[in-house]
Every structure is written in structure tokens, then in C-alpha cells.
Specification:
single chain; 262 residues; alpha/beta
Length: 262
């Protein structure tokens, strides 16, 4: 009878733990309390040690889930990490600086970052990789191309929701703006983009990737004064990385073809 009572007690305890964990939203404790309890019994661990282990596991898993959510919400077009960047293939990129930036002090300080170089030199990889690092450090990040952002701002202006959209972009800790300078923006689009830059100036970080040197941005921003103001916003107290010329992708493709004899 005693064994039966113990069995019922354990069953009731498991049910109570399951219910409480669902109410308190503690999925790791709900899923793993049994195995941790069994390990604690084998090791003759005390109650506090058992509870500490359970809570630590829950905190670790919660942080992992939070990081994954922030990376997902950043809307990166593809996964890229700084650890996977081939610095040997592009020696123009300063590895020490990039690794320092991946620790995200510049995001905490609200500093800009400019990645300038030809197509295929790793700008987008660095942009996404540093954005991913920032998200995993707990910062709110958003990736968007310049063209997509301008289109969104124009639509918001037409719908009279521009202030709301600009405010939303202003609250993001790090805005990753890709393909700046790839297409010419009319004056209205450039002015709307400038409003986003002004909203974030010296308050929140923005990282841009462009295939054009600053002196060539007048091709994208046709108003010289507006272009100068945008460059000023993006370069003040900024980290600037020149990724150089010569496409890494083209070199890699050529090397693969040579190796295969095609």
C-alpha cells in the first residue's frame, strides 16, 4: 500500500508541477524536472542544489529563445555569422576591428557603421553577421534594403502613417540598411530616408552597406545638399570599413571552375 501511495503522490506531484509550469510559463522546468530530480537523487544533492539547477536551465533556455526571437524579428534575408566570414579571402577587411564590433559596444553607444566596397566583397555578410551578433546580445535589430525602406516610407506618407513608421524605426537599437546607393532615389524618397536618419541620429545605431564611395553618393541622392547632410549623419563618430574591390564570389567561382577543369 505504501508503494501505491508513493506512486500516487509522485503522479499528483508531476501533474501539479506541469500545471504550475504552464501557468508560470516555465517550459524547461516542465520538460526536465524529472531527469534533474533523478540526477539529484543519485548524487544525493540537496533541495537548494536541485532548485538551482532547474532555475539555471530555465534561465539559459529562456535566453536562447530570446536570442532566436530577436534574430528572427530582424528579418535577415539569409543566415550569416561573423565566425563564417573568410578574412583570408578578403584581406582588405580588418579582422580585428570586425571582431571588436561583434561585441556590440558601438551599438550601445549609438554609433554608425559604414561598409563601403564593390559588389561581392562581403559587405552584406558583414552587415548581417554584425546585426546577428547585436540581436544575440539582446538588441532590437531590423534589416532592410534602402529601396524597400523608401517604398515603405512613401506608402506610409500616402497613408498618413509616416510618423508612426518613422517612430517605429527610431525605436530599433540597430538598423541594418543594405544596398544603399544601388539605385537612384528621387527627392521625395531621399527626404523620407533622411527623416529616418535624423530620428536616429546620436541615439541609435545604423549600419549601412554601399557599393559606392561617399563621393559617388550624389548619383543616388541627386540633391547635393541633401546628399551632404545624409553623409554627415552617417559618418559622424562612425566606424568605416572599406571592403575593397574585386568580387570574392567571382574569384571563388573561377577557382572552382579551374579546379573542376570546366
Amino acid at each position: 500500500m505504501a508503494a501505491r501511495r508513493d506512486e500516487l503522490t509522485d503522479t499528483a506531484a508531476d501533474a501539479a508541477i506541469d500545471t504550475a509550469c504552464r501557468v508560470l510559463r516555465l517550459p524547461t522546468i516542465r520538460d526536465r524536472h524529472g531527469e534533474v530530480a533523478a540526477a539529484a537523487a543519485r548524487q544525493q544533492a540537496g533541495y537548494k542544489a536541485f532548485l538551482t539547477e532547474l532555475l539555471s536551465m530555465e534561465c539559459d533556455d529562456r535566453e536562447t529563445r530570446r536570442q532566436a526571437r530577436l534574430v528572427r524579428e530582424a528579418a535577415f534575408p539569409r543566415p550569416k555569422r561573423i565566425e563564417d566570414f573568410d578574412f583570408g579571402a578578403n584581406p582588405d577587411v580588418p579582422a580585428a576591428l570586425v571582431h571588436t564590433l561583434s561585441r556590440c559596444a558601438w551599438v550601445a553607444a549609438g554609433q554608425p557603421l559604414c561598409l563601403i566596397g564593390d559588389s561581392g566583397t562581403g559587405k552584406s555578410h558583414l552587415l548581417i553577421g554584425l546585426g546577428t551578433a547585436a540581436a544575440e546580445h539582446g538588441y532590437r535589430v531590423r534589416y532592410v534594403t534602402a529601396a524597400a525602406l523608401v517604398n515603405e516610407l512613401v506608402e506610409a506618407s500616402d497613408d498618413r502613417t509616416l510618423s508612426k513608421v518613422i517612430g517605429r524605426y527610431g525605436r530599433i537599437d540597430l538598423l541594418c540598411l543594405d544596398e544603399l546607393g544601388y539605385i537612384e532615389l528621387d527627392r521625395r524618397g531621399a527626404e523620407l530616408l533622411f527623416q529616418v536618419f535624423t530620428e536616429r541620429e546620436e541615439k541609435a545605431s545604423i549600419a549601412v552597406a554601399s557599393n559606392a564611395a561617399f563621393s559617388e553618393w550624389t548619383s543616388a541622392f541627386t540633391d547635393p545638399r541633401l546628399c551632404a547632410a545624409i553623409v554627415d549623419r552617417l559618418t559622424y563618430d562612425a566606424h568605416i570599413i572599406q571592403t575593397g574591390a574585386g568580387s570574392y564570389r567571382l574569384r571563388t567561382t573561377a577557382a572552382r571552375r579551374q579546379a573542376s577543369g570546366t
